[in-house]
User: What shape does this take?
Amino acid sequence: MAAAIPVNDTITPDMLGADPYPIYRDLRRDMPVVRIASIDRIVFTKAADTHLVKTSPKLFGSHDTTTPMQRAFRGHTLMRKDGQEHLKERAAMAEALSLDTIANEWTSVLTLIAHDYISRLPRGETVDLRPLLAEPLAARCLARILGLDSASDDDMQHWAPTLIAGAMNASRDEAVFQRCDEANDAMDACFNRMIDQFRKAPNSSVLSHMANAADPLPFSQMGTNLRICIGGGLVETRDGLLTTLFGLLTHPDQLNHCRSEQRWQAACEEGLRWVAPIQTSPRIALEDTEIRGYHIPKGETVLAAQASANHDEELWRIPEKFDITRTPIRHQSFGDGAHNCLGQNVYRTLISEIVLPMLFDRFPKLSLEDPSAIRFQGFGFRGPESFPVTLN
Ligand code: HEM
Assistant: This one.
């Protein structure tokens, strides 16, 4: 008979936000399937289990109409749908975000944007790279690829955290939803403006593809899914870039190797594995089921902790170490299964082919002001809170 899931009542959300990795390590060893009482979720921490949860759509679904995300995003996004309905909405965006479209249409545009933003950085000065480069660069690249050219960097940088706060508004604080409403009005105005433009002059962007499709999604659904890309693409790109830079700048031997052998792709993947920008993904148990001998009741919301999966000792030696020379094994930072990240080609191209080589080419002696002062924060989304560097 399946055992009841053990309950942990000592781990708090604050502990998870400060540093979840030692907690994940202990859980993988002692309680790989656990109910964390303070967040009232069953959490899976082993790579095999998070993979199983994401790739078993008959056992674990994404369909959740109770999430605050629905209210915050003005609709039910593709990320919380299953089956044909999910596939149809995913297909509406997939071509625009495919490797071919990125390579043929967007690499040159992203390169110009990166050149523009990196060239503006003041040589010789100490600056915080998060507000000065990582965030506005992610905002501009995302705006162009999504087809939101008329949105400013400030708009994008305001919309993304506002949407995230709404999606995480479990207490359903009306003031948080109101801030989403105001941002959503501005987003809808931008979407409408751009749709008018793309009907006359299409381009390769996500919105242009969606608006000019033979059987277009309703406007509300296009908007909801664009919001997933804004909320799920900007902050993560910023955090992924800064995490990788932190790994390289605190391991000069690896940075040298990277530069001499052009191993930017390995650095990009290792940064994602080391600290997953999105640490966990929720699913709902569709059936009573059993994992590792534990009973998972139908209807439970479970969390697949991909951040922990990426540190599973069964797959990686000394997983807490940033090491770009590892034999490549697929990490789970872009998710798994039917809902795997649609933006991964954009991220990989932007960071490994463009930004990392360009940044170190322009500032060969780029250095961290004080490595011990860099604080990573966050359980849902994780990355450095600030990133002071000297630009030489
Ligand atoms: C480092 C950067 C990024 C990371 C770590 C990341 C991570 C993820 C993860 C873990 C999921 C799966 C969520 C789940 O299983 O419930 C996901 C889905 C998604 N991501 Fe990303 N993402 C990143 C960048 C982007 C970008 C730049 C875009 C848009 C251009 C984007 C668009 C999406 C979309 C649309 C989905 C939903 C796919 C579906 O439900 O079928 N992401 N992302």
Notes: Residues 78-79, 90, 97, 142, 145, 228-229, 232-233, 236-237, 240, 277-278, 281, 333-335, 339, 341-343, 346-347 surround protoporphyrin IX containing FE (CB under 6 Å). The mean pLDDT is 97. Residues 219-249 form the longest helix (31 residues). The chain has one domain: 7-390.
